[in-house]
Amino acid sequence: MTFQSRTYFLGLIVVVLLQFCAFTIAQEATLTPPANKYFGREIATTMHFTGAPWLMRESRQREEDCEKLLGALKIKPGQTVCDLGCGNGFYTLKLARLVGPEGRVVAVDIQPEMLGMLRAAAEAKGIKNIELILGTEVDPRMPAETFDLVLLVDVYHEFSQPAEMLAAIRQSLKPTGRIALAEFREEDPTVPIKPLHKMSKRQILKEYKPNGYELVEVYDELPWQHLMFFGRVEK
């Protein structure tokens, strides 16, 4: 092999290696995107369906006083309620009892596995007033002007597209409908939850008001969580 041939061959190898490295870097950027932020808040990763047993843990009632939260919602028989980010249905099943046979609960999640667990639980209990919807990260596929209440329990902080989701929720509410938002209190360091999965009242208001909502009620009697109620502002 001549000197010129060796030089050409080595140069070709360098070009191929550079192209491979560029491809690898691009793949890593796609697989591991930079953390998203909204109004200065880092958005948490959505809880995977393999963590579903934690939602049904025996200690949850003691830690969060779920029955007190349900009482604060003031749900009436016959209402139409949405459990958005329902997971495997911890609250969905309880809401179905509260709205009664004349009411309806729409359960929305982006993971079909979660909805499958909820479907199995509802069938086992003979509950028939639950409708399941598989949403996306930008569209919960909720019908317009339908809901008396949309419940979000420890899930809003995981929305990867908060503005789009808040717009979709807003159009799904009846004119007098409300959002009930429960989030772990960032202001309380004794709440044993990772900071990324907490929110402060100030941050919540910072995000909700510009998106067409007004705060109508605050319930401060839960052990670990804020419970804040929002109505839609007519534009």
* Count of alpha/pi helices: 8
The shape is: globular
Can you give the mean pLDDT?
88
Q: Return the structural class.
A: alpha/beta
CATH class of the largest domain reads Alpha Beta
Alpha-carbon Rg, integer = 23 Å
Q: Which segments are poorly predicted (pLDDT under 50) over 5 or more consecutive residues? A: 5-34
Within CATH, the superfamily of the largest domain carries the name: Vaccinia Virus protein VP39
Spatial separation of the terminal alpha carbons: 78 Å
Helix content: 25-40%
Overview of this protein structure:
The strands form two sheets. Strands 3, 4, 5, 6, 7, 8, 9 and 10 form an eight-stranded mixed beta sheet that branches. The chain has a two-stranded antiparallel sheet with strand order 1-2. The longest helix is centred in the first third of the chain and has 29 residues. The chain contains eight helices and ten strands. The protein has two domains: 31 residues; 195 residues, Vaccinia Virus protein VP39 (Rossmann fold, 3-Layer(aba) Sandwich), CATH 3.40.50.150. The protein starts with a helix and ends with a strand. It is globular and about 45 Å long. With 235 residues, it is of the alpha/beta class.
SSE layout and pairing:
Blueprint: H1 3-31, E1 37-38, E2 41-42, H2 52-55, H3 60-64, H4 66-73, E3 80-84, H5 90-99, E4 104-109, H6 112-125, E5 130-134, E6 147-153, H7 162-172, E7 173-185, E8 198-199, H8 201-208, E9 213-219, E10 225-232
Parallel strand pairs: 3-4, 3-6, 4-5, 6-7, 7-8
Antiparallel strand pairs: 1-2, 7-10, 9-10
